[in-house]
# Entry
Amino acid sequence: MFICLVVSCSTNVDEWTGYSRVDHIIVSRLPLDSSKLEPSIDEQNNDSLVTTRATTTGTGQNIGILFEHTDTLGIFPDGGYQIPFVLPLKEGETASGVLIEAQGWMTKDGIMYSTYLPFNFYNRNYNRIPWDYGKPQIQSVNTNHEHLGEHIFEATDTTRADNGTFHASLRNMACILRFQCYAPTNADYRKVVLAIDYNGFPQKGYFDLFDVHKNANGKHTPESQPFIAENNTNFVYVLIKSAPLATKNVLTAYLVVPPIDLRGKTITAYVWDSNGNCYSQTMTLDNSDSRNWERGTVRGIAFTGLALTTTPSAYVTPYDSEVGLGGVALE
# Structure
């Protein structure tokens, strides 16, 4: 899934030789790639998903990202400082595309640019944009996905200005994952952990927006703007404020997951209820492409046989208190 950004410039040349004045920036988005999202196991509530940076939109497999009020782009020129562009949307308004008045911003032909979202004033170096995939993701109720926008980071391939115009594609740099399971008993469910047997999930680290590795055909690869992890973990999780369900009803949770290829790997789901009971199931994933959780994709995973288990202390976090589960991190 790509998010496209087009900059449309005037042909007027100012006193700065080689510079052209940008009059407008047209920002638009295309759908996320949900072609390999497995069918929902919840027949009664075929979930919809639309997120803006964001908000999430769509029904079934039609999933995308919208812009919303206060979204701000950061644009880095090669060798220079970033420029912020606040998207011109009113409070409560969302859009798949917007037109920005560039207000005389200068762009130079032949210079390389890269764009990212959300803008952060303290990002001083385009080759070190910090991001933390370990921040707690807190879902409000069952099937809700409004929290996703807080955890989405998007960036573009590098591109050069030509005659005062450049074109770029903004992509979600992670995977949106839909977790589902049948409720093993009547309970209010509060937490989901997905764990593997090695430290394969990148956590804290940074993006290099100007890494220009290309494949044999000279095209940028999906990892052209790499995430350099400074530490990794063996699990990802989402907290849920409240999800009361009867036995065999479907629990649906959403989380942003850093890219990881789990084809043929073993994964365990742990689900907690409000009484601190933990239920789990382990399975070995098949080798289909749907198990490769790539950038810009929507993937799904479902567990249909959770059973009561001993609470694994390794997955207790300080943030569990947000949903009434204590929250003292164990050594």
Remarks:
- The radius of gyration is 21 Å.
- Confidence is low (pLDDT under 50) at residues 1-18, 57-61.
- Residues 242 and 284 are 29 Å apart (CA to CA).
